Fold this protein.
Amino acid sequence: MTDWSPVDLLPGLVFGALALLLLAALRRGYDPVPLRIAAVFGAVLLVLFGPVLFGGELLLPLDGVRGQVPFLHLPEPAAGEPHGNLIQGDLLQLVAPSLAAVRTAYGEGRWPLLNPLAGSGMPLLADPQSQALQPMALATLPLPWWRAVGVMAALRVLLALTFTFLWMLRQGLGEGPSLAGALAFGLGGFLILWVGWPIANSAALLPAVLYAVSRCRQLGGKRDRILLVATTAALLLGGHPETIAFSLAVVVAFWVVARMPSPPGPLSRLPSPLAGRGGDLAAVVLAALVAAPALLPAIDLIPRSLRATRPVVHPVGDLAEHWLPIAAPNAYGNSRYVHYWGLANTNEDAGGFVGTITLLGALLALGPTWGSARRRPQEWLFLGIALLCLGLLSPWGPGTRRLLLPLAFSLAYLGACTLDRVRLGEMRRIAVAVAAVALGVIAWGYLTQGDPSDPERLAPLRIGWLHWQGRFLVLGTLLLVLGKGRKWTAPVLAGLIAAELLLAHLPANPPMDKRLLLPVTGPIRFLQDHLREGGRMAALGRSFPPNLASLYGLADIRVYNPMAPAAYLQRLEPAITGWWGELPELGNPGHPIYAELGVRYILTAPGETLPTPFRPVFEDADGRIWEVPGATPNPLGPPASRRPHTPIPGFFAGMLLAAVGLAIGAALFVRPPAAASTAPGAPTRSAAPG
């Protein structure tokens, strides 16, 4: 890049400092990550995010607004520069405005309760997607929001890789299989395709909570309980209620099964006076109290939000549309390349893809372990979770694609369990037969599921991926057969898993040149100059997408957010002429609601005309601006319109509960430890897997 400067190293330095702090804390108080494993994680993170962390580029679809008013004439990308991923429009229009508003509030020394520039004041703290108290967002506060998004994405992947690896080690798996499982989940479709959204926080933190539960089960020390409180609170503040609920369900199931008596032998558990279930429950309750300042306002807002009044309708397809993308992610095209004819979109449907070799290992885990082999701890549990998720993801299930999160994690663990059996020479060589069936299913998907309107559409991508998956499947099968009982088998397979997933998912997150960040066109400059002293704007149709104006410091009466208060949108209804998903499209400019909400200017396409008494005050090739006569000086409307979504009562109640929780936590965990018992037969700590 010609405009690179040393300042562009700052995101990488911040991320590096946070990564070293995490690894040092684990080494000092928990389980260390071996240097060679940390080097592997660093390498894949550099491949994924190197240009963003050190090259000055931004992990945002900055050119996604090209062709819309007022961005009709943005320059095309230079030769060799990728287009942004159009499916990621929400990162710029929904996630980024909330992050920016939260940072503005903290920078001004106030709590992030409302974003006054969106709608009549879009709740921030009550909106989970704003991530107002999310630790990863708070850790990146020193950076501007456009650089912080890349660091947050890298942190999510780092946490998923690190804690999946450590948790699998705690389950008794070897280092190589644990590495393979961590790479399968951490580079898998669910996390990498959603890496810029708050939904990825759940994927990043689920392994961390499971690791904390394992530590509490096996050791039960205070530092383990502190880790459980911290990771559970971070998960509760993740920002996506649905995946948080699914993650907690997995954690509860693991906790219940892990507390069952273990058979005698090397995997048995010795009781610990600090490992009682009451201590675990107390840690979870403390985590909920710590997260209460954000949870209570959200619980208050959700029933009165747009999502509650306009529930999502899940598409219904055949069994192939529901299951095939888990094994063949490009069988129905790819939203990255615009064309997709599957159930919903690539992010929704292919989030369960964790690599062809991982899937082969998971299929092998379904079969018998053949005599001398043994099931790994809680392997049956995750077999059950995987099968349950597959059933719920069928046409007869509820249809929510968020179940791909527990499914992807379960597949990664099951694949790692198979690799561990291969490492110890405990499994018969039946992989060839299973691989042949898997290859047949994958080939059937790519060869028969073309676009019905144009079977040749994206044929090079689909057939190319059939070849690539076939290669990885054949190589993986040969290594499973020939590498039985060899130490090098699992690390080599881990490398193949990482290579395939990087090949599959790297194009989904193209870094963009920072020169594309928030271009100021003629209409935007006019609005910035004339709305400095107050007043609001609006745009008709799909012009100037809602929320985007707030990044320019402009107040817009529109709001695009599933958590938007339904009461305000009902008030705005006379001006709404249609919906594009959850994005309201305005029209009917003559309605008095515009003046009542303090709209001084309306933005339209160039050449568009409005009836009198509107008069044009600006026009160029990117848009035309009209002045609204008689705008009220109070842009927020009467107090009655604000009361239903004011988050202040819930916020203060949450702060009180958080203070109580911190006080209880200090009393339980920070007090001086009691003297160690030296009585004969005193229980000792067990490092057995759990």
